[in-house]
Amino acid sequence: MTVFRAFLRVLNKGKATIILYTIILIFFGIFNMQTSENSTNFVASKPDILIINQDKEEGITKNLMDYLKENSQIVEIKEEEQAIDDALFYRDVNYIVYIPKNYRQDFLAGKNPEIQIKSTGDYQASFAQMMLERYIKVANSYQNNIKEETQLIQKINETLAKQTEVEITSQLDTDHLSKATFYYNFANYSLLAGCVFVICLVLASFKDYKITKRTMVSSMSYQEFNRKLLLSNCLFAVVLWIFYGLLSLVLIGEVMFSIHGLIYLVNSFVFTLCAVTIAFLIGNLIQNKNAINGIVNVVALGSCFLCGAFVPMDWLPDYVLKIAHILPSYYYIKNNEWIKELETINYETLKPIFQNLIIILLFASLFVFMTNMISKRKQKT
Q1: Which pLDDT tens digit goes with each residue over 83-106?
Q2: C-alpha span between 195 and 42 (Å, rounded)
Q3: How far apart, in whole angstroms, are the C-alpha atoms of residue 239 and residue 182?
Q4: 117: helix, coil or strand?
Q5: What is the per-residue pLDDT across 137-155, written as a single tens digit (0 to 9) for each?
Q6: What angle do CA 320, 322, 327 make, to 5 degrees?
Q7: Non-local CB neighbours of 20 within 8 Å, separated by 6+ positions
Q8: How many Å apart are CA 90 and CA 262, to the nearest integer?
Q9: From the CA atom positions of the chain, what is the Rg in Å?
Q10: Which end of the chain is more exposed for a tag (fewer CB within 10 A), N or C?
Q11: What is the pLDDT of residues 101-118, one digit of tens each?
Q12: What pTM did the predictor assign?
């Protein structure tokens, strides 16, 4: 109990830094929600097309023009090449279709007349290209078998009118899951930095010369002393984890009440325990309180940049991710990315997440073992 009371007194001195890390987490959480609010919405748009018809507007020629007009925005531009080129350059039009003279007559005769085009080369122009190619492909397939123009146009229109029905089978709330992943990825920094700063501050205070001598001459062994300090630090870390978990309910919302939210919480809890052991190890290595801020920057920021907390893993070079494998943050963030894509929850889909959680716990066990070895050696000296 004496150790715990001393721990609380030292903890009170570091509350300002903990509040700072929390404010940073809240700021980036709100910023992410605002920037990604409409990120998953899709709005269909039609390309801007200019049709230059050098044939008579009748029959199959008129039908082609009607099809293009129905599926695009027709732009009126002066039919001069300089004006057309300027319109393409300034993106006033995406796609230009030149219907040649005698197109209708040549098409019905089976000559497959060529339609010239000009394009900006962007995605809108590609969409217009697909529309034109679809019409020509359908028209050519019927032209070989149907010679009567009215019947030919009817068949073409019937085929083009058929639309593929798209059934959405995924029920994932990708928008909110992306927000949750961003939040918990960034929590890697807040949890790690908060634990390292506070625990290192506590341990540095316990390393005061007088306190160290009193501990050494007491009946308390170094294992018991470390265990009580570790439990006190774990209690602080759990409280910090609970606070960040409650904060995620406010910032993210209903997703946190789902099975995905539970897995995010479990993953962050296991990482929090590992963060405590990391901080405990570092705290037993350093002696100077003034070095704590530098240690926080190296450990917390370094882990975040290498493992994908700030920059998405998909954007990081392969050699950086290979280096990141030696850090527990990599497996924590990797789990967050997998949780975001979980559509079916069962043993097989959760197996990679369980494996990463075990790896994180193994890291924690290694850090505890190293801490005890260091403490034992220091007591002998």
Answers
A1: 888 888 888 899 999 999 999 999
A2: 41
A3: 21
A4: strand
A5: 999 988 888 888 899 999 9
A6: 90
A7: none
A8: 51
A9: 33
A10: C
A11: 999 999 988 888 989 998
A12: 0.62
Residue with tokens 């700030």: 310
| Helix residue ranges, H only, the chain | 2-13, 15-35, 59-70, 81-89, 103-108, 123-143, 149-161, 174-206, 209-217, 222-251, 259-285, 292-296, 302-307, 318-324, 328-340, 347-380
* Distance of alpha carbon 322 from alpha carbon 306, whole angstroms: 9
Token couple for 338: 């997998």
Q: What are the tokens at 98?
A: 């030149």
pLDDT of 270 higher than 80: yes
Contacts of residue 333, defined as CB under 8 A and 6 or more positions apart, other chains included, come to 185, 188, 307, 308, 309, 313
Please answer whether residues 134 and 67 qualify as being in contact, where contact means their C-beta atoms are separated by less than 8 angstroms: no
Residue 297 has pLDDT above 50, yes or no: yes
Question: What is residue 114's DSSP assignment?
Answer: P
Q: Which two tokens stand for residue 245?
A: 């978990």
- C-alpha neighbours within 13 Å on the C-beta side of residue 235: 12
Phi, then psi, of 134 in degrees rounded to 5: -65, -45
Buried b (16+ CB within 10 A) or exposed e, 343-363: eeeeeeebeebeebbebbbeb
Looking at residue 46, what DSSP letter applies? Answer: P
Rounded to whole angstroms, the Cα distance separating 186 from 197 reads 17
DSSP type of residue 144: T
Instruction: Give phi and psi for 304, each to the nearest 5.
Output: -65, -45
Q: Which tokens sit at 114?
A: 């060529």
For CA atoms 215, 220, 222, 225, the dihedral sign is negative
The amino acid at 97: V
User: Element (H or E) spanning 52, and its range?
Assistant: strand 48-53
* DSSP 8-state secondary structure symbol assigned to residue 247: H
Q: Is the pLDDT of residue 28 over 70?
A: no
CA–CA distance, 274 with 268 (Å, rounded to integer): 10
